[in-house]
Amino acid sequence: MRWLSDPVLTVEHLTMRFDGLTAINDLSLNVGRGDITAVIGPNGAGKTTVFNCITGFYRPTEGMLSLKDKTGSTHLLERLPGHDITWKAKVARTFQNIRLFSGMTVLENLLVAQHNNLMISSGFSILGLLGTRGYRNAEKQAIDKAMLWLERTGLTSWADEPAGALAYGDQRRLEIARAMCTEPSLLCLDEPAAGLNPKESSQLNELLLAICNHHNTSVLLIEHDMSVVMQISDHIIVLDYGSKIADGTPEEIKNDPKVIAAYLGVDDEELEKLETEAQI
Amino acid sequence: MGTPMNIHQLPPTTAASRKQITDRLKTIDLEGLAKDSALTAIIVLLLCVPIIGFKLEKNQFNILELASHWGWVVTFVIATFLFRFVRLASATYRNRTKESSPTSAKPQIEEESSLSAKLLPLTGYILVGIAFTFPIIAAVATGGLAASRSWLDLAILALTYVMLGWGLNIVVGLAGLLDLGYVAFYAVGAYTYALLATNFGVSFWICLPLAGILAAFWGIILGFPILRLRGDYLAIVTLAFGEITRLVLLNWESFSNGANGISSIPKVTFFGIPFTSADNGFAATFGLPYDAMHRWIFLYYLILALALLTNFITIRMRRLPIGRAWEALREDETACRSLGINTRNTKLTAFAIGAMFGGIAGAFFSARQGFVSPESFNFMESAIILAIVVLGGMGSQVGVAIAAVVLTVAPELLRNMTFLKNFFGDSFDPSEYRLLLFGLAMVAMMVWRPRGLISVRNPTVSINKTKAIGANLVKEGHG
Question: Where is the signal peptide (chain A) (predicted)?
């Protein structure tokens, strides 16, 4: 139960309204440090909206999102501007529809991810324009780090190819590698296994476990592929209609009647019973 | 990559059908081509006889007479025959070589792009070499320094546009922000020098960087309100800002002297030494015989140096984190934000740096011209600079330079094409057709090279091999 004792991210009373529509309603959840946490739920349950709130693409209507980073200091995500959530609070994300810089090479993609560090070492371009040794070393280090992640994701031989020319599964992995180059303490993955074949999704499982175990990074993922979710998650949160309906270990979730009802529907007999219970 | 639907490119399912296709291609002989071409020529002949062949003309007694132009008809028919024949033959040849090579069309394209990637730097060096020796070339070609004045004038104009094109290339080509009001920064630079020099007697060499700084500042001021706009909206608002700048200069008479402009702006000096025939002049100081052309040659090398500085800084910046962030911004702004890039600051730097070069070019313009008025900074200028960037290939330094030279030199060449009068009569004035030809060239470019002259993108960093990236993958930015 690391998510209760040592949470990396705490979401409290998060509500997100779009005009009249309430996409998320008073949601509270914890993401444990070093855990792989999965957010699941039927389509339209508000999973991606939660992600967008956490990563600063939406400003929550109500609620508090606090992230405790590796050094122990707390960042209130709802108050940070979007880019600072990645740079200062160290939350990285990938997208449901892959968003790579398709006209830039794989290596360039990973260097753009290290923009802020490189900007500082290039003296906000002034030292870089002069070509000082400090900047050249920093760039070399950035390339080394990029190559390290290419090796981990098995993309080394593609380093000089344009990202848009990669196969779909490789693009998915590259997006994760790019997010990891920002050195996040929390990595948010929006459907990382979508469109992958069984072999690729088992590779993805290994990659996510490695990220979690060796890089001191917690993973939060939205996923529909239950083979991924059940095999690697330490903690599963189930959303439906913008509210949390279940929260626990994979075993607990598997046997939760509410989850089964949300996914498979309820048969008429049971519905009647529930309705009489609720006195409708 | 769009593969044209061509029967010869479809992968044959069996070896037999493949052989069949090859055989069929081999049987396309010259006789068949000649027949086809002859048929086309006959159609042209039938059309030409009544249209071109006969003409009613007045003879010296003012009586209508039927004249014939058989020479023209024959020329047209032969030309059609040859054109058709060569076209068909080359098309057949191309298809056959495609069929005979086992590789598909894709590697061929890649080879082509890597070849052009190798040739590009070479082209750049050749162009720089020509640019450095141009005054000598011009003097030799026209037979004397004084005679080369018009050539040099044109070259200075062309280089000014090269510099403006390179400046705008940062904003449009790299950062993908469509700016239709770039001329505003050119105007800021021009008026900076004009006003400071005429009112306070500030030297050109102090005004040059100052013009750049003020234009960059203006770029940031204009950039702020339009940060959230994309695409069409960005284009409209930048266009409006360009016009506002011009209208302010036109109407704020106490500041800019309105439509009358500012005249007698001090001329460029050789780092403080004026180009005069006086004892302290350039010629006397260096022990040369006085020649009015010294000033023009100096202006030429000055704008060449400024343009090359723009080029150098742009190339350098592209390889720095800021340059990569500009290009990433063009590719995908949302992804940039998710990687912690401050998109606001990145856009503003692109605007500011682009504007800075525009401002420096503006200061040069007013020093060369000796006179500025708001009329020099109308929308047409912005449109031409944008056309240079788009035609050259967004993001490509060499392409932009070539497009700038073509777009500035072509109208002048057109003016000199008096031989066209032999064809179209004495009342024909080629320069009146400038915009028509300009438009035709644009349409032709958009059909054959929709992404500009040089559309490949060179990566800024590589591990093993640098390979140009095809235009189909590179995005144009959404505003």
Answer: none
* Alpha carbon A66 to chain centroid, angstroms: 16
Question: Could you tell me the pTM of the whole model?
Answer: 0.78
Instruction: Name the residue among B317, B334, B474 with its Cβ closest to that of A99.
Output: B334
CB spacing of B324 vs A100 below 8 angstroms: no
- Boundaries of domain holding A167: 100-182
Residue B86 burial (CB count, 10 A): 12
Number of independent structural domains in chain A: 2
Of B322, B336, B338, the CB nearest to A93: B338
Give the integer Cα–Cα distance in Å for A136 and B123. Answer: 28
Q: Are A31 and A163 members of one domain?
A: no
Q: Does A183 touch chain B (CB under 8 A)?
A: no
Q: Exposed, middle or buried by CB within 10 Å (0-12, 13-18, 19+), for B66?
A: exposed
Write out chain B residues lying below 8 Å of A92, CB-based.
338-339
One domain for residues A81 and A138 = no
Whether residues A146 and A127 fall in one domain: yes
Report H helices in B252-342.
Answer: 253-256, 282-285, 293-318, 321-331, 333-338
pLDDT tens digits for range B16-52: 556 655 555 555 567 788 888 888 888 888 888 888 7
Closest CA to A257 of A273, A242, A276: A273
Residue in chain A closest to B455 (alpha carbons) equals: A103
Q: B-side interface with A, Cβ within 8 Å?
A: 313, 316-317, 320-322, 324-325, 327-328, 331-332, 334-343, 349, 457, 459-467, 469-470, 473-475
Contact call for residues B138 and B325 (beta carbons, < 8 A): no
Nearest neighbour of B328 by CB, restricted to A104, A161, A179? A104
Q: Name the closest residue on chain B to residue A146, using Cα atoms.
A: B463
Distances (CA, A) of A161 to A26, A234, B49, B449: 45, 36, 59, 23
- Which chain A residue shows the shortest CA-CA distance from B332? A101
A143 lies in a domain? yes
pLDDT in tens, A54-107: 888 888 888 888 888 877 788 887 888 878 887 888 889 898 888 989 888 999
Domain termination site, one of A154, A182, A210: A182
Residues A105 and A53 grouped into a single domain: no
